[in-house]
Write the structure tokens for this entry.
Amino acid sequence: MSNEQTSSKPGFDEAALAGLISHVQQKPEAGKTVWKASTNWVGGLQSQAKIRGFTVTMDEPTALGGSNTGPNMVEMVLGAYGCCLTTGYAANAALRGIKLDDIQVELEGDLDLNGFFGLQDPNQCWPGYTNVRAKVNLVSDSATPEQLQELHSAVIQTSPVGSILARPINVITELQNS
């Protein structure tokens, strides 16, 4: 780990991250974590997610019947993936001693509303994203193209949100009426 400034952007606690990585290396079971969120309906098509003391408002755009008071849920997925990549680049670059001047990620996803609206069988027309594309621009005056490619490869392979999008996971949704 380098002690010199590795970015022109505000830093983060590299020692804390390195300490956690070391702890998980020594005790792999410590890496098995559970993350939580809760949501509530505000009204109309607006809802809020409460995550670690933060409240995130989500809504549909007016074209989908919402009041456009926040991004919709599928947009949040794109944003979550882009921010996950950004975090991965920033953290991995710092831990490798690579100075990044900027990180920009542009994302888009293909979603067929026929599936979402129930107009076609979900087995024939998937209601979620069928493709997600991310274009990454890493700006560094000091890193070599090879270093940036190695950084990119490491981040893509270890992105939690990228993994959630790319691999099947178990989702259990229970109805609990009170």
In short: The first helix runs from residue 14 to 26. Strands lie at 38-43, 46-51, 54-58, 102-111, 129-139. Residues 72-166 form a domain with the GMP Synthetase; Chain A, domain 3 fold (CATH 3.30.300.20). Residues 1-6 have pLDDT under 50 and may be disordered.
